[in-house]
Amino acid sequence: MINTPYKQLEKGDKQMHPGLQFLTFIGIFLFVFLAGNLIGSGIVIGLYGMKTLASLASLDMTVPHFMTSIWIIQTAGTTLPILLSPLFFAWVIVRDVPDYIKPTFRFPWTLLLIVLAVMFLSMPLIEFLSNLNQKMVLPPWLKWMKESEEQTEKLMEGMLKMGSIWDVISNVLFIGLFTAIAEEFMFRGVLQTIFYKWTKNIHVAIWITAVLFSAFHMEFFGFLPRLLLGLFFGYFVAWSGSIWTGVWAHFINNATIVIVTYLFQQKIFTGDVNNQHVFNNIAYMISLLVTAALLIIYKKVTDSRKQQPLLSNGEELD
User: Can you give the pTM of this predicted structure?
Assistant: First the structure.
């Protein structure tokens, strides 16, 4: 039978309180994050010297091997900690990988098509939220966030410079797939499960996790669209009982950004890649209605699959 989302969480388990689970997980993540950054920095120093490492702090992109060093620090200090921390927590601390990671593939494969449609047909809605976010005015004491985002944007432009199709493939695999797996294991896997155990309300758990997911990226002017994406990913996983529906949605989003960026760089697409005024108000409304309808269909598909009768051996009757 399809894996019922969070089905074992009501079974009076003897695990630690979810509040303590949350604090434990944060402690593990911070430790692995610090260790990863130290290891990444050591690799950069060993390969290219202290001057190159110092250039990362000053964002001096003229220093040789700057972008390679950024990739090393990004991988060792961010992506791997995001992946390893939830795996360690689920496997060693709570010893319940099925509930905290949800790696099952037992879900209706039609869900992947619905997810694909949601991710593309919700683009006007994402643009609307992005434009709304851009209109927000930061208080003076938070102006540093705007400067930080501008620096991050420059770094991403450098990391996404692609001169060949092989660069595209490597970025799709790393930024698109690997990052999607890592972040979904952490947010929709461990954290969303902890918050459900804590609040006993899946909607509250999804919203809290989506807020943390968006805030984690430290991009104030992208907070609302990323919050919506976090909600999509959260409901996909909660309703299907599988982390892979969230990974698939996350991958589509990230890979699309990589491919579209490459097409603009190669002048196949013209104009401004950062243009946030592609759609009009009618498109925004249609996107909202269609996306809502697709989410309802997604939920009905998962509900109908869970209600299928079982054979005598406990398997689903197809």
Answer: 0.89
